[in-house]
Specification:
With 96 residues, the chain is an all-alpha fold. It has a domain of 61 residues. It has 2 helices and no strands. It is rod-shaped. The N and C termini lie far apart (82 Å).
Length: 96
C-alpha cells in the first residue's frame, strides 16, 4: 500500500498546518499547566517560609541594635545614632 503524496501548498497543507497548530497549542497548555502546578506545590510554600524567616531575622537584628545602643561603647553609640539620623532623613526625603 503506497502512501499518498501530500500537497503542502494546497488544501492538505492547510490541514497539516491546522494539525500542527492544534498539537502545539495543546502541548503549550500542558507545559503551562505543569509549570503552574509545580509553582504552587514547591515554590510558593518555600517563598512564604523564607519571608517568615526574614521577618524573624529582621526583628532579631532590631533587638541586637537596641542592645548595642544601650550597652555599647560611647563611640559606637554615636556612630549608630548618626546612621539612624541619616536613615530617617532619607525616608523623609522619599515621602516628599
Amino acid at each position: 500500500m503506497a502512501t499518498p503524496e501530500l500537497d503542502y501548498t494546497g488544501s492538505q497543507g492547510g490541514l497539516l498546518g491546522m494539525a500542527f497548530a492544534a498539537g502545539w497549542s495543546i502541548a503549550t497548555a500542558m507545559w503551562l499547566g505543569m509549570g503552574a502546578l509545580i509553582w504552587r506545590l514547591f515554590f510558593e510554600p518555600r517563598i512564604k517560609e523564607l519571608k517568615g524567616q526574614n521577618d524573624a531575622l529582621q526583628r532579631r537584628i532590631e533587638q541586637l541594635e537596641v542592645m548595642l545602643m544601650l550597652h555599647g561603647p560611647q563611640q559606637l553609640r554615636q556612630a549608630m545614632q548618626a546612621v539612624t539620623s541619616e536613615i530617617h532623613l532619607d525616608h523623609r526625603e522619599e515621602r516628599e
